[in-house]
Amino acid sequence: MRLRECHNFHDFRLLAKKRLPGPIFNYIDGAADDEVTLRRNTSSFESCDLVPNVLRGVSEIDMSVTVVGQKLATPFYCSPTALQRLFHHQGENAVAAAASSLGTMFGVSSLGTVSLEEIRRKYPGPQVYQFYFHRDRGLNRAMMERAKDAGVNVMMLTVDSITGGNRERDLRTGFSIPFKLNLAGVTQFALKPAWALNYLTHEKFRLPQLDEHVDMSGGAMSIGRYFTEMLDPSMNWDDVAEMVKHWNGQFCLKGIMSVEDAKRAVDIGCTGIVLSNHGGRQLDGSRSAFDQLAEIVDAVGDRIDVMMDGGIQRGTHVLKALSLGAKAVGVGRFYLYPLAAAGQAGVESALLHLRTEIERDMKLMGCTSVSQLSRANLRFR
Ligand code: FNR
Q: Which residue pairs from 144-147 have beta carbons closer than 8 angstroms and sit at least 24 positions apart in sequence?
């Protein structure tokens, strides 16, 4: 299978599986415990049907949205994800370039493998800087200062990762950062020589957002250990309120799932929330963001921008979320598989597929702009 034979999420996933060493593919593909939430994230979109209107004159489609003060040419953006140079040597450069060319937002992860400054310098367009709350308060402050200096548009604090999720696939494969060269690792390298050659011949793998703060010279570190050892489980609403005040700009919380928390986010001055269960990678059994969306939009949608992510594989999934009141939706694996499959060309192709699907689906729904989508277009089963 080649890139031009990829027509949807599943095709890109298969191509990624072919290209990547098993532990790395499973790191992207996997989730927590029994992966119930991972599956539910996508299946929940089937809990309702679209009800189209016809004969509305749909030759011009405008799918742009404005969210957290940023104008996006598409109603989807690239959610922040870690370690992208492990998946393809172009890493964040590929995804940021593709997002920029589409006129949408790219989320830089604090666990990213290309520096925030490089991304800001090279790719025009709105960018989010996603970070975690570390035990080292100095580090939290330093990250915000650095983001300010880099001219970041939106800060996004991920609040669902107070401890590492139980990702059993990673335990089984021994996945760690940097990729470990033990016997199993060498075998994986040998099985995927094209990936291995790229990994070994390109710039050394680093976490430039954390460089000075995480010492990886002593060997590999699992993601679970990073969460458990470096993040601060005592983080609370007062801590975040202080950060929001200090940032004094667009500030989102990612990983909000309850109405109560959504209201508190409004109270402390956040400008956006992302309903998310981290792609099913944290609390298995957690509800899907789509299932929680209506309740939260009804409670706070007039006071804060509500976004969601998790499980999006189709243009119709995006339309359903927008119809329920999401201002925009994030995609994760949707661009990670194509990144692994074919670098920037892969990500561009996947994002264009999604844009084309949305455009086609809006026409079929009888909508010329996102603002025309509403709950009148949906029926729950
Ligand atoms: C993630 N996600 C994530 N979130 C975050 O806030 N910081 C991060 O560094 C990462 N890293 C990360 C790595 C990988 C491999 C995945 C799959 C996910 C979660 C991400 O932002 C988003 O919430 C989910 O990916 C959305 O679900 P889908 O679109 O992957 O189903």
A: 144/243, 144/246, 144/247, 146/116, 146/209, 147/116
What does each C-alpha distance from 335 to 62, 95, 104, 162, 174 come to in angstroms?
Answer: 23, 8, 13, 25, 24
CB 91 within 8 A of CB 203: no
91-106: pLDDT as tens digits: 999 999 999 999 999 9
The answer to whether the beta carbons of residues 322 and 75 sit under 8 Å apart is yes
Q: What's the token pair of residue 206?
A: 């680093």
Amino acid at site 215? D
Atom of ligand 1 lying closest to residue 277 CA: 23
DSSP 270: -
Considering Cα of 110, then 115, then 120, then 125, what sign does the dihedral take? negative
Q: Average pLDDT in the 339-354 region? A: 98
- Of 110, 281, 336, the one to substitute when testing ligand 1's pocket (max ligand atoms within 8 A of C-beta) is 281
Residue 87: its pLDDT value, please? 95
**288 DSSP 8-state letter:** P
Among protein residues, the one whose CA lies closest to atom 29 of ligand 1: 332
One-letter amino acid identity for 287?
A: R
The number of helices, as runs of H, and strands, as runs of E, in the chain is: 16, 12
* H-assigned helices in 202-332: 223-230, 237-247, 259-267, 289-300, 315-324
Any atom of ligand 1 within 6 Å of the Cβ of 311? yes
Residue 248 clears pLDDT 80, i.e. is over it: yes
Residues labelled catalytic: 278
What's the pLDDT score for residue 219? Answer: 54
Token pair, residue 281, equals: 């990678």
- pTM over 0.95? The answer is yes
> CA 372, 374, 375 angle in degrees (round to 5)?
160
Is ligand 1 within 6 A of the CB of residue 333? yes
Beta strands of 35-75 (E only): which ranges? 48-50, 65-67, 70-72
C-beta of 158 in contact with ligand 1 (< 6 A): yes
Residue whose pair of structure tokens reads 């520096």 in the numeric block? 115
Confidence tier at 181 by pLDDT (50, 70, 90): low
What are the structure tokens assigned to 339, written together? Answer: 């990144």
Q: Is the CB of 28 under 6 A from ligand 1?
A: yes
